[in-house]
Design brief:
This protein is of the alpha/beta class. It has 10 helices and 15 strands. About 4% of the residues have low confidence.
Length: 315
C-alpha cells in the first residue's frame, strides 16, 4: 500500500480504475450524498476484511450494502411490503433499511457480522451508483475515516484520516448531507429507528404507514452489537485453545491445526473473512462445545478477539 493515496477527479476514467480495484478485492474511497464511503466488494469476505483493516475498526459491526436498483436489493434480502413503500419514497437517497437476508444471498458473512439480517441502501450520488454498475458488485461501504474519527465529507478528509491505508480516493467534491444515512429496521407491522439521519421518524411513518419505534422503546429487539453476548453460537465457546478437549470442535489458526482453521498461514485478513462462517459451521457439528486457537491481539486480530469475546460471554 502506498504511503499516500492516489486521488483522482471524478470522471468515467476514474470510475473504471476504481471498478478494477474493487474487482481485485481492494477498497476504494468514494463520495456518496451523505459522507465519503470506503467501498469494497460485499460478496468477498477478504475484500471486506480490508475495509476493517484500513479503518482500524475495533469490532466487526454490520456494514451497509449499497445497491443500484430495487431488483439488486431483492437478490440480497427479503423485502416486506413496507420496504417497497419506503423505497418508493426515499430511494435513491440517504435511507438504509435493515431487512431479512435472502436465503443464498451472496453477501459475505463478515458484512452482516453473522446476523440473519442485512442493511441495504440505494445511494443517490452518481459516483457510487456508477461504481456499483461498473464493478458489477453490491458494495459494502462504511464511512471512509479511521474508526472513532470524524466522518469525511471531502476527499482531503479521507486522505488525512486514512492516509496510506487506502490506495485510491475518488474526488467528487463536498458531500451534500454531511450526515450518515438514517437506518431503520423494517418489519411487517412496525419500523425500528436504529440510527437517526436525514430522513426523520415522521417522514418514515408517513411513507410506510407504520409506527416508528426506537430500539429502547422496542425492548424485544436490540440493535446489532448492543449486547456483550451478541453473535453467540449455541454451544459453549472456549478461547485461546492450543488443543482440543473431549467433545470440542477446534477452530485453528496458524500453527494450531484444528477440525477447521481460520487461516493455516496465520493471515489475519483471511481469518477475519472466515470468522463467522467457521462459527456457524462449528455450531452445526455434532460436537458439544467449540474451541478457538489463540489469535494475535494486533491489527485485525483486535477485532477478531473482540467478536470472539462477545460470542463467548456468559448468557
Amino acid at each position: 500500500m502506498p504511503s499516500h493515496p492516489r486521488i483522482l477527479p471524478l470522471d468515467d476514467d476514474a470510475i473504471a480504475v476504481a471498478a478494477a480495484q474493487i474487482r481485485e478485492g481492494l477498497p476504494v474511497a468514494v463520495p456518496t450524498e451523505t459522507v465519503y464511503g470506503l467501498a469494497a466488494d460485499a460478496t468477498s469476505g477478504e475484500a471486506v476484511a480490508r475495509i476493517y483493516a484500513a479503518k482500524g475498526r475495533p469490532s466487526f459491526n454490520p456494514l451497509i450494502v449499497h445497491v443500484a436498483s430495487l431488483e439488486q436489493a431483492e437478490t440480497l434480502a427479503e423485502l416486506p411490503p413496507a420496504s417497497h413503500r419506503l423505497a418508493a419514497a426515499f430511494w435513491p437517497g440517504p435511507l438504509t433499511m435493515v431487512l431479512p437476508a435472502r436465503t443464498g444471498s451472496p453477501v459475505a458473512d463478515l458484512v452482516t457480522a453473522g446476523l440473519s439480517t442485512v442493511a441495504i441502501r440505494m445511494p443517490a450520488h452518481p459516483a457510487m451508483r456508477a461504481l456499483i454498475a461498473a464493478s458489477g458488485r453490491p458494495l459494502a461501504a462504511p464511512s471512509a475515516n479511521a474508526s472513532g474519527r470524524i466522518s469525511a465529507t471531502r476527499a482531503a478528509h479521507v486522505a488525512a484520516s486514512l492516509g496510506g491505508k487506502v490506495s485510491l480516493i475518488l474526488d467528487g467534491g463536498a458531500t451534500r448531507h454531511g450526515l450518515e444515512s438514517t437506518i431503520v429496521a423494517v418489519g411487517e407491522d412496525k419500523l425500528r429507528l436504529l440510527r437517526p439521519g436525514p430522513v426523520d421518524a415522521k417522514a418514515l411513518e408517513e411513507a410506510s404507514g407504520l409506527p416508528v419505534l426506537s430500539p429502547v422503546a422496542d425492548a424485544a429487539i436490540e440493535a446489532p452489537g448492543q449486547l456483550s453476548s451478541h453473535y453467540a453460537p449455541g454451544k459453549p465457546l472456549r478461547l485461546d485453545a492450543t488443543g482440543r478437549r473431549d467433545g470440542e470442535w477446534l477452530i485453528g489458526f496458524g500453527d494450531v491445526a484444528g477440525d477447521d482453521t481460520l487461516s493455516a498461514s496465520g493471515d489475519l485478513i483471511e481469518a477475519a473473512s472466515r470468522l463467522f462462517g467457521a462459527l456457524h459451521d462449528a455450531d452445526e457439528t455434532a460436537s458439544t462445545a467449540i474451541a478457538v486457537a489463540p489469535i494475535p491481539r494486533e491489527g485485525l486480530g483486535l477485532a477478531i478477539n473482540d467478536r470472539l469475546a462477545r460470542a463467548a460471554a456468559p448468557r
